[in-house]
Amino acid sequence: MGYDIDRFVGYVNEGLLCSICRDVLEDPLQAPCEHAFCTACIHGWLVHHSNCPEDRQVIDVSLLRPLYRYMKNDLNRLQLHCRNREYGCEMICSLESIDRHERECEYSQIPCSNAGCTVQIERRNLDGHLAVCEYRSRECPNGCGYTILSAEDTQHNCVAELRTELELLRSEMICKVEEAKHEMESRLDSQRRHMVQKESILQNEIEELKSQISRLMSDVRSLMAVERQHRQELEQAELEKREL
């Protein structure tokens, strides 16, 4: 939908009106036949039709283009009243800057920022409303540190609130201790399994070393036996040589 033509000051060129809603173009698009539409209007039209609503020429979403620059400039220069005129705003500004003004307009109706409050209030009166809003929150004046709503003032009990807070803290602490305990047990189990695995590997390596040492000792004994035999043979040969 476009901008209500009654909001505008002075004459508005026919070419700047949407061919569907007949209001001033908002976020405009133009068909190849040069008829212009609000984006929302033409997209809604093309859901059920495949032609231009003015001259019935076939059009498709892919054929829509932004408005010509000179037409866009003419559109942006149009002067119009703020939409909050009925609440007292007398601002008149260009279409190009109207959105920025209305986002900050003091007469805009905005919701109360307090949770649970459904009041819509003018921006300029918001601070006054927040000061008396029954849903406003504040810290307990007795020093317990609890945040209370004005509507709960008569029901607030510092001792009860502190006990509740203490119970919550105690429950959280117990949960954290249990979590830390489970985590430590898990780590210990993991380390224990790792140590058992390492011990098994080391034991296997020790057995292998023992086996190697045993083989080496056997080889040494064999070599010593061979050496004794060779020495005896040499001694025997020496005796035979002397006899000859």
From TrEMBL:
Chain ranges of zinc fingers (TRAF-type): 101-144
GO molecular function: ligase activity; zinc ion binding
SUPFAM superfamilies with a match to the protein in the record: RING/U-box, TRAF domain-like
Domain TRAF-type: 101-144
Keywords: Coiled coil, Ligase, Metal-binding, Zinc, Zinc-finger
Domain of life: Eukaryota
GO BP annotations listed: regulation of canonical NF-kappaB signal transduction
Alphabetical list of InterPro entries matching this protein: Znf_RING, Znf_RING/FYVE/PHD, Znf_RING_CS, Znf_TRAF
Coiled coil: 159-243
Domain RING-type, residue spans: 18-56
Pfam families: zf-C3HC4_2 (PF13923), zf-TRAF (PF02176)
The name this protein goes by in its record: RNF41 ligase
